[in-house]
Design brief:
This protein has a single domain (2-120), classed as Transcription Regulator spoIIAA, CATH 3.30.750. The chain is built from four helices and five strands, in the order ββαβαβαβα. A five-stranded mixed β-sheet has the order 1-2-3-4-5, sandwiched between helices. The longest helix is centred in the C-terminal third of the chain and has 14 residues, at 86-99. The mean pLDDT is 92. It is an alpha/beta fold and 128 residues long. It is globular and about 35 Å long.
Length: 128
């Protein structure tokens, strides 16, 4: 499951991933985000999720994002927060692929929520 929450005061959307999540659910969440209220900053919290994506699905997700209207994210940042291990590797793979696509925002991968918020410049991480 992917839940999203918009914090307008920080220009931030937080996506919380929990349970088993496959490519289709990511694609739906991404399309919904860009069809709705887009914020400059995005944080994807994968710490409670079990991401089940193949290399090809990661490539296809990155490619599909690059085809969207991303002008509202110019100068923005996206942070992925994961546990160490496979999820971290998948997130880094997505980052590397996206880096080749000249997106108008930066992507970084973290294992610490506080560090992600510091990099985003969105203030302190929530206490939970």
């Amino acid at each position: 499951m992917i839940k999203s929450e918009v914090d307008r005061s920080r220009k931030l959307t937080i996506f919380t991933v929990s349970g088993k999540v496959k490519a289709r659910e990511f694609a739906i969440a991404i399309r919904s985000y860009y069809a709705g209220e887009v914020t400059l900053y995005a944080l994807w919290d994968f710490r409670k999720g079990n991401v089940q994506l193949t290399d090809d699905e990661i490539w296809n997700l990155a490619r599909s994002v690059s085809t969207l209207n991303l002008s509202s994210r110019t100068g923005g940042k996206t942070a992925f927060v994961t546990k160490k291990g496979a999820s971290f590797g998948l997130a880094k793979m997505y980052q590397l692929i996206a880096d080749t696509m000249s997106l108008p925002f930066e992507i970084q991968v973290f294992t610490d929520l506080k560090e992600a918020h510091q990099w985003l410049g969105t203030g302190d991480a929530p206490a939970s």
